Amino acid sequence: MSEKAKTTPDLTLRGLRVFVALAEAGSVIGAASRIGGSPSGVSQHITALETAVGARLFDRKAKPVTLTPAGQVLRRHAHKLLAALSEAQADLAEISLASLPQLNLAIIDDLDASLTPVLVSSLQSRLSRCFVHAFSGRSDHVIDRLLAREADIGVSAMLPPDSSAFRVLPILKEPFVLVVGKGAIQGDVRRALDSLPYVQYSESLPIGQRIARHLARVRLNPDRRFALEATRSVLAMVAQTKGWAITTPLNLMDAERFLPDLEVMPLPFTGDIRRVHLIARVDELGRLPEDLARDCRALIRSRLVPRFDALAPALAGAIEVAAD
């Protein structure tokens, strides 16, 4: 073997991933963000790749950077190679999952009663020898368990601080809605809120913090008399005081026994949207997270959406399920 052959860099999978990221992002900084690396690292990988193939792959003077003819050829092959690798990894993961002794779930509490039985049943049908442990709690606690590896899969309305290490699969999005005591609103809704008791979620909760920020954005500063931690307590207090609160459709269904004493309506000011995701670590568990996300969406379409539409006909269609 010649000395030149010994020192010529090889094509690497990491180099191909960097190449594809740069081709899609159109900038070194954008590619670095996609792969969770540094701009200098991206440049080094591309230089090594160009040396390995013996041709320029990008016109870096163009803004955004564009592929050369050689780069266009490599892109076609790179996508095929990476797709084949991903399929092989998924197949290998399925083999290892068959002997998985335990799987830990963490699910936001307002979906616990509806989603947990479906996910556990789905896991048992796929992994008959696996012991499934399910935790229910706040979105920030779900994320904490994922980060601490105390959960393998989470369903949360929050994202990890560094999402590049996780697969984030959308489940649904829902608007924040107004809940008032039955008969409490007469005339203009926004004006009526000024004279009614405001029942707030505690700002120690993610939902409480988010609602507080949104009220500040729309310049609404209601008199704060009390703060409660559970949706059931919030809705019970709204019914008792003929006051008002802000919540979401999923939270409403978690405490629907109070709805006969309440009215649900759109916010009388600019709204906000909450998104719920299924989250799992990258390159772990094969196709299982995607399968479970589909199961979640199917359940929500078939059961939760019709149920909410029946409870609050004026807001029918408010819960939007992500496409499979």
Automatic annotation (TrEMBL):
A Pfam cross-reference name: HTH_1
Gene Ontology terms, MF aspect: DNA-binding transcription factor activity; transcription cis-regulatory region binding
Alphabetically ordered keywords of this record: DNA-binding, Transcription, Transcription regulation
Transmembrane region(s): none
Family: Belongs to the LysR transcriptional regulatory family.
Organism: Pseudotabrizicola algicola
Protein name per the record: LysR family transcriptional regulator
Stretches assigned to the HTH lysR-type domain: 11-68
